[in-house]
Amino acid sequence: MxxxxxxxxxxxxxxxxxxxxxxFVPAASASxxxxxxxxxxxxxxxxxxxxxxxxxxxxVISAYIDSKLVGSNTLTEVGEYKLAxxxxxxxxxxxxxxKLGGVASEPVSVTYKHGDAPVKxxxxxxxxxxxxxxxxxxxxxxxxxxDGKDFSTVKAKVVDDSGIKSVTLDLSPISQGVVSLKSEGGxxxxxxxxxxxxxxxxxxxxxxxxxxxxxxxxDRISITVLKxxxxxxTFGGSDGIFSPEExxxxxxxxxxxxxxxxxxxxxxxxxxxxxx
Length: 276
Fold this sequence. Notes:
The chain is about 20% helix and about 35% strand. The protein has helices spanning about 5-30, 230-235, 245-250, 260-270; strands at about 40-50, 60-65, 70-75, 80-85, 95-100, 105, 120, 125, 135-140, 145, 150-160, 165-170, 180, 180-185, 190-195, 200, 205-210, 215, 220-225. Residues about 25-35 and about 270-275 have low confidence and may be disordered.
């Protein structure tokens, strides 16, 4: 059974441990370098004015100090922006300049203050802030083989009164990065997608004009890349076996590439097309 003396000793021990902890914590904090503390960004938000009054989602607003990019964000609302500026203590007192879609704002008198409270700042931009228009966009055929040779052709028609600077496709889902579409004239652009990776994929399509305004589509470019051992289960019905009728329907299906059709015929019919 614990005596009153034992209780007092236990309480005293706890106090000693607590006191020692309080003594060591400041020392550890003092030994930490201020450079270990991440910089606190300055936050700006406000309305967009001038030609940018109706600028909307998709446009990128950016901030610069001494021509160095120190922050960027994509607009999510029409005529409004939010932006965090990540400068350093050495940037304190330096002027900040802003750009929207590559267009510089009208001059503003604002300097960077390390860790300053959020600032309400309206910005005026004059220029072209209307993104290009995607008139047509498709990928055909939608089913191809994963042999790296079979392909699906992306076709796009993109228009803009100020011209088109770039038309790209993000093929990162099949480990090919961002690629540029080929201009065919008349606002038409094409690209042949090949892949050695199998699966169902969607690719992001982006078109930009010379002012940096861009339009993005994430849904319309969708293809399925198949391995040869997936053809029977994909097109041969629940039993995974092709009937003459299923083969005939496959040959007529314009969504299926010639590569897939030849692979099916070569596997299941020794004489190929004349068996249909």
